[in-house]
Design brief:
This protein is an alpha+beta fold. The protein has six helices and 14 strands. Helix content is about 25%, strand content about 35%.
C-alpha cells in the first residue's frame, strides 16, 4: 500500500541490511540456503514489526552455514533494534543468539536468565542436563556452612564452594560441567575433589577431546580437554588408570 518510490527505498534498505544488494536481481531459488534465510528475514523486517517470531529459522542449514548465519542474524536484529523471540531445540544456537533464555519442559518455564546464568547456575537437574553437557552426582548433604558445603556421593565426598541452607542428609545432586574437570595420569599434589578411575571411551572432536572415565562403583564421568597443541601431550588412551579432579567452585548443588 505504499507509493512505488517508498517501496523501492524500503527494499533497498532491507537488501543493504542483509548484505544482499549484489543479488537483488536473482530469484530466491537461485540463492544459497543462508542467503534465502536472509531474504526471509528482510521480508519480515520490511514491515517494521514490533516483535519478530523466529521458529527454528536455521534448522535446515548445515552446521557450518548455521553457525555463520547465527552471527549474521544477531548483528541484523541488534542493528534494527526489534524484539525477537526465537524457538529452538538447539542449545548451542540459543546460547549464541539469545540475551535471555527460557527453558521449558511440559509446558512449564523452569528458568529464565542470560545464557551464562542458565549454563553456570542451573535451577534444577532438568535445566543442568538440558543445556550443555553435565555430570550429575547424586548424594546427601554432609556439611553445610555459609560459604561451603559437602555432599556424600557414590564416588566419595564432593566439596562445593557455596552453602545451600538445607537440612543435613537431605538428598541433593551436584552438577559439574565436563570442561571444568582436569584429567591426568599423574596424581596432583593437591585438589579438593580428587578421584580416580579407568578410561573407557575417548572421542576426538578437533577442538577438544572427550574422555569417559569409569570409577570403581561403576559411575561414568565425562571429561573434556581442550586441544591447545597440535601434538598429543596427555598420552591418555583406553583402559588407562587416571586421576580427575575439579575445584570447589566448579560444582553447583541442586535440590530439584
Amino acid at each position: 500500500g505504499l507509493p512505488k518510490n517508498d517501496i523501492k527505498q524500503r527494499v533497498g534498505e532491507m537488501l543493504d541490511l542483509v548484505q544482499l544488494t549484489p543479488y537483488a536481481k536473482r530469484k530466491p531459488h537461485q540463492l544459497s540456503g543462508g542467503q534465502q534465510q536472509r531474504v526471509a528475514l528482510a521480508r519480515s523486517l520490511a514491515k517494521k514489526p514490533k516483535v519478530l517470531l523466529l521458529d527454528e529459522p536455521l534448522g535446515a542449514l548445515d552446521k557450518k552455514l548455521r553457525e555463520q548465519t547465527q552471527f549474521e542474524l544477531v548483528n541484523i536484529i541488534e542493528k534494527v533494534g526489534v524484539t525477537c523471540v526465537m524457538v529452538t531445540h538447539d542449545q548451542e544456537e540459543a546460547m549464541t543468539m539469545a540475551c535471555r533464555i527460557a527453558v521449558m519442559s511440559k509446558g512449564r518455564v523452569l528458568q529464565v536468565g542470560s545464557p551464562k546464568e542458565v549454563y553456570e547456575h542451573p535451577a534444577n537437574r532438568f535445566v543442568a542436563d538440558f543445556i550443555g553437557n553435565v555430570n550429575l552426582f547424586e548424594g546427601k548433604l554432609s556439611i553445610d556452612e555459609t560459604d561451603r558445603c559437602a555432599v556424600q556421593t557414590a564416588i566419595g565426598e564432593i566439596h562445593v564452594g557455596h552453602g545451600v541452607s538445607g537440612a543435613l542428609h537431605m538428598p541433593v545432586a551436584i552438577a559439574v560441567r565436563p570442561e571444568k574437570i582436569e584429567i591426568s595420569k599423574e596424581r596432583p599434589d593437591f585438589a579438593p575433589n580428587l578421584f580416580s578411575g579407568k578410561v573407557k571411551e575417548i572421542a576426538y572432536f578437533g577442538a577438544y577431546n572427550t574422555f569417559i572415565v569409569q570409577v570403581s562403583d561403576g559411575t561414568r564421568v565425562k571429561i573434556t580437554e581442550a586441544n591447545t597443541s597440535r601434538d598429543d601431550l596427555s598420552h591418555i588412551t583406553w583402559e588407562d588408570d587416571v586421576y580427575f579432579w575439579w575445584s570447589d567452585g566448579a560444582g553447583v548443588v541442586l535440590r530439584d
